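Quick one, probably user error.
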């Protein structure tokens, strides 16, 4: 997987490429819009991370050039502008996702993984330890026992299971499950997670839904979760 990082600020570009490389991705950096356009022309990238504030042209201009190509990879916009207007323009211009600086690297990585997985066929059934979710029949069981979930609860659980072991922010969960911008209403996620925990985790000694401080939530079996904490 090859990622192009378009970012003029060296500190951020270095931070991104180091982080992504240690995540196993090949990374190229372009520090102007012009060089980005050339690189996209010369190399096939699986994902482009695009800063909007570039010295030679607006990032939205670069986005247009990328989208004009026949094969055009997913684009994640990175910007210090948090105005709703810029966000809308970016998404209308064909960006696939949008992250406002400053951001937690773990959130960027989670979004990168989601974007890279798009277009690949999704499994019909998800299984994590004794928790099983049938995406077609929309049935959930844990330890062989049926669990009744409301539609939103089901969607959140499905999203958590598809991203097993990856922390998902409240914003990501809101945007994924409600399909709209629920800015300021991310508390709703906590409410739904509480419902989910009471149905999925409360009766079982092994808890699967973990709170990731400063980020949001993650689904993982506790042994793996603890292992990773111990190693990090
Ligand atoms: Ca910049």
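Nope, works fine. Designed sequence:
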């Amino acid at each position: 997987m090859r990622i192009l990082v378009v970012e003029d600020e060296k500190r951020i570009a270095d931070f991104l490429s180091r982080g992504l490389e240690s995540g196993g991705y090949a990374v190229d950096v372009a520090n102007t819009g012009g060089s980005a356009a050339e690189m996209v022309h010369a190399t096939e990238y699986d994902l482009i991370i695009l800063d909007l504030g570039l010295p030679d042209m607006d990032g939205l201009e670069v986005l247009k050039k990328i989208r004009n190509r026949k094969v055009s990879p997913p684009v994640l916009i990175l910007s210090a502008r948090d105005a709703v207007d810029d966000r809308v323009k970016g998404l209308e211009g064909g960006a696939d996702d949008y992250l406002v600086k400053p951001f937690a690297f773990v959130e960027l990585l989670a979004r990168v993984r989601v974007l890279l997985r798009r277009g690949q066929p999704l499994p019909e059934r998800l299984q994590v330890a004794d928790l099983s979710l049938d995406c077609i029949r929309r049935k959930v069981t844990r330890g062989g026992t049926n669990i009744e979930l409301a539609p939103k609860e089901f969607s959140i659980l499905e999203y958590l299971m598809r991203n097993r072991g990856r922390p998902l922010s409240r914003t990501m969960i809101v945007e994924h499950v409600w399909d709209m911008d629920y800015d300021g209403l991310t508390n709703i996620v906590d409410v739904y997670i509480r419902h989910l925990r009471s149905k999925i985790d409360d009766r079982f000694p092994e808890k699967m839904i973990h709170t990731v401080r400063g980020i949001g939530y993650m689904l993982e079996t506790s042994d793996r979760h603890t292992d990773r904490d111990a190693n990090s």
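Residues 187-200 form the longest helix (14 residues).
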